[in-house]
Design a protein that fits this description.
With 263 residues, this protein is mainly beta. Helices cover 10% and strands 42% of the residues. Strands 1, 2, 3, 4, 5, 6, 7, 8, 11, 12, 14 and 17 form a twelve-stranded mixed beta sheet that branches. The longest helix has 9 residues.
Length: 263
């Protein structure tokens, strides 16, 4: 099965540990069907089937980079009275920030207000450099849930230098998962973020300033995107702070729920 077969078919892919080895597979009902090979290339079933309770879920991909968008939703941009961007505005999340489903988001050693930002993640499935918008979706493998955790106080603390990378790059500050879902129409998706069971964010991906096709194409003119890389689409209204002991969940129907505690 190659990327083009994945794209047309609704499937949910996971990476997991079983019997001490890292494996990957497709979710079918309450079971995980193990595959061998390459999730983004030729993946073939091994015949092994695992129960959820028998495996340790990992982050579903191993990105070389996670790109995070700023001011990509009309509702939030208008609320903050931000100018409409002429091009995608983005930063990179540091690899030490990557965290899988059910992992613990750790409070930084510095003080400051830590906020959640529930987002849709675009997972790249095929290397792309300077890809035209019309061909961009053929380079997308699927979609995942993400939380772009941020220490808000740090961002503009120094008036001479906006500290985006530091504010968003602490250890465990980029949870994503629990799966990569293929075969979805991203324009129909809705992101819901819950804090301790209360809905704090509930917004439609159709409100994006730059579509999935535009993001993949335009960013690929800046830097090569490779399989497993993730583009976080940005967030909308409802971002808020978390206190240690909180449970934050990012839900997207068709993908699932990304759950992480903040301690």
């Amino acid at each position: 099965m190659n990327i083009h077969e994945h794209q047309g078919k609704e499937q949910r892919w996971v990476r997991f540990i079983h019997a001490g080895k890292i494996r990957f597979g497709a979710v079918e009902g309450t079971a995980i069907h193990e595959y061998r090979g390459d999730m983004f290339g030729d993946a073939t079933p091994t015949g092994a089937v695992h129960a959820w309770d028998d495996v340790g879920l990992l982050a579903p991909t191993q990105p070389t980079k996670v790109i995070a968008l700023w001011n990509n939703f009309r509702a939030l941009g208008e609320k903050l009275q931000l100018a409409v961007p002429a091009e995608p505005l983005y930063l990179l999340k540091a690899p030490n920030s990557y965290l899988g489903p059910n992992g613990v988001i750790r409070k930084p050693l510095c003080d400051g207000k830590v906020v959640f930002e529930g987002e849709l993640g675009i997972v790249i499935g095929k290397t792309c450099t300077a890809v035209p918008e019309a061909q961009a979706l053929s380079h997308v493998f699927g979609y995942t849930c993400a939380n772009d955790v941020t220490v808000a106080d740090i961002l503009h603390r120094d008036p001479s230098f906006a500290q985006w990378v530091r504010a968003k790059g602490f250890d465990t500050f980029c949870p994503f998962g629990p799966v990569v879902a293929t075969g979805l129409d991203p324009s129909t998706l809705v992101v819901r973020t819950l804090l301790n069971g209360d809905v704090r964010q509930d917004y439609s991906i159709s409100d994006m300033r730059f579509s999935v096709e535009q993001l993949v194409s335009l960013i690929s003119f800046d830097m090569t995107l490779v399989p497993g890389d993730i583009i976080l689409c940005g967030t909308s209204i409802g971002v808020g702070s978390m206190k240690p002991g909180s449970l934050v969940e990012v839900e997207i129907a068709g993908i699932g729920t990304l759950s992480n505690r903040f301690e």
